[in-house]
C-alpha cells in the first residue's frame, strides 16, 4: 500500500476511456495487474485526471489481481463498475521496479544448508522469440505500445527448475504449447459487420516450424464477444474442420479474413483445465 495510490471512482459516470493490457513482472513473469497503455482524449479519465499512461491497476475493490488471467482481471473490473463506488489501487511507474521485487521475494525465499534464509533471484534470460500480434479487424501490426508489458511474456525469467515442458507457464497467452491437460471446445462464430472480433498471437517460427497460435484479446465488438465462449489464452486447433498445427499465423488470419459476412466459422480450441488456473482461497 505504501507503493500504490488509491483512486476512487464512480461506476455510474460512463466509460473510463482507458486501454489496458496485462502487466507481467519482468522478474518472475507473474501477472500482477492491468497496465494502462493508453487514455482516450476527451474521456472521463483524461478530463478528471483519474489515471495516467504507464500506471498499473493492481487491486480492484480490494481484490488483488496478482496471478489472475487477463480475462479474469477484465471481468473483475467489469463487475466492479456496476457499483456506485469503485476503489482502485494504482501503481505509479516510478514504483514499478520496487513493487515487482516485493512480489518476487516470497517466490524465491529458500533455505540453504545452514538453515539461514536467503533470496535466490534467477539471472536474466534474453530469448530470441518475439510475440507477433495481428488484429483481425484491421491490418497486421507489431504493437510497439505493448512491447514494454508483453516482453516478459516471451519467456518469463523463471529459475530452471520451473521451466519443465509439463509445467503450466505463468503467462496465460504462452501458457501451454502442448494439448495435454486441456479440454477441447467447439465454437461457431457467425461473422457480422463488425468481424469475428478477436486477435491472435504466436511465437516467431523456429527450427521446429510455426509455434502454437493463441487467442490474445476479445475485442469489445464483434462475433466473439456476442457469443461469449471464446476466451483470451485459448489455443486454436482447427478452423472449419482443418487442423492448423504447423500452419503460420498469417495463414490462419488469411483463412479467417476470407470468411464472408454472414458465414459461420467453426473453431476447435483447447483450454487449460480449471486445475491450472489461479484459485481464490
UniProtKB/TrEMBL annotation:
**Residue numbers spanned by region Disordered:** 152-175
Matching SMART domains, A to Z? PDZ (SM00228)
What superkingdom does the record give? Eukaryota
Cleaved signal peptide residues: none
Q: Which GO terms describe its molecular function?
A: phosphatidylinositol binding
Query: Which residue intervals define the domain PDZ in the entry?
Result: 4-80, 186-259
The record's Pfam families line, in alphabetical order, gives: PDZ
Parts of the chain that traverse the membrane: none
GO aspect biological process, one term: establishment of cell polarity
**Alphabetized SUPFAM superfamilies for the sequence:** PDZ domain-like
Q: Tell me which InterPro entries the record gives.
A: PAR3 (IPR052213), PDZ (IPR001478), PDZ_sf (IPR036034)
Q: Mind telling me which GO cellular component terms the entry cites? A: adherens junction; apical junction complex; apical plasma membrane; cell cortex
What protein name does the entry list?
A: Partitioning defective 3 B
Amino acid at each position: 500500500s505504501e507503493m500504490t495510490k488509491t483512486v476512487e471512482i464512480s461506476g455510474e459516470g460512463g466509460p473510463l476511456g482507458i486501454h489496458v493490457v496485462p502487466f507481467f513482472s519482468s522478474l518472475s513473469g507473474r501477472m500482477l495487474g492491468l497496465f494502462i497503455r493508453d487514455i482516450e482524449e476527451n474521456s472521463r479519465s483524461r478530463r478528471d485526471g483519474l489515471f495516467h499512461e504507464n500506471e498499473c491497476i493492481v487491486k480492484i475493490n480490494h481484490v488483488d489481481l496478482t496471478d489472475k488471467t487477463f480475462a479474469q482481471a477484465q471481468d473483475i473490473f467489469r463487475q466492479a463498475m456496476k457499483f456506485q463506488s469503485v476503489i482502485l489501487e494504482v501503481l505509479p511507474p516510478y514504483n514499478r521496479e520496487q513493487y515487482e521485487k516485493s512480489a518476487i521475494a516470497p517466490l524465491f525465499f529458500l533455505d540453504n544448508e545452514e538453515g539461514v534464509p536467503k533470496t535466490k533471484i534467477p539471472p536474466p534470460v534474453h530469448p530470441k522469440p518475439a510475440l507477433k500480434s495481428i488484429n483481425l479487424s484491421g491490418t497486421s501490426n507489431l504493437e510497439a505500445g505493448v512491447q514494454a508489458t508483453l516482453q516478459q511474456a516471451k519467456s518469463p525469467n523463471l529459475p530452471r527448475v520451473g521451466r519443465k515442458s509439463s509445467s503450466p507457464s505463468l503467462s496465460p497467452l504462452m501458457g501451454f504449447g502442448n494439448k495435454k491437460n486441456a479440454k477441447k471446445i467447439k465454437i461457431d462464430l457467425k461473422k457480422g459487420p463488425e468481424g469475428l472480433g478477436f486477435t491472435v498471437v504466436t511465437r516467431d517460427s523456429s527450427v521446429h516450424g510455426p509455434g502454437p497460435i493463441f487467442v490474445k484479446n476479445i475485442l469489445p465488438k464483434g462475433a466473439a464477444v456476442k457469443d461469449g465462449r471464446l476466451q483470451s489464452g485459448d489455443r486454436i486447433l482447427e478452423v472449419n474442420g482443418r487442423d492448423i498445427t504447423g500452419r503460420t499465423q498469417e495463414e490462419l488470419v488469411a483463412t479467417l479474413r476470407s470468411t464472408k459476412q454472414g458465414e459461420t466459422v467453426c473453431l476447435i480450441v483447447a483450454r487449460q483445465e480449471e486445475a491450472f488456473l489461479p484459485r481464490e482461497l
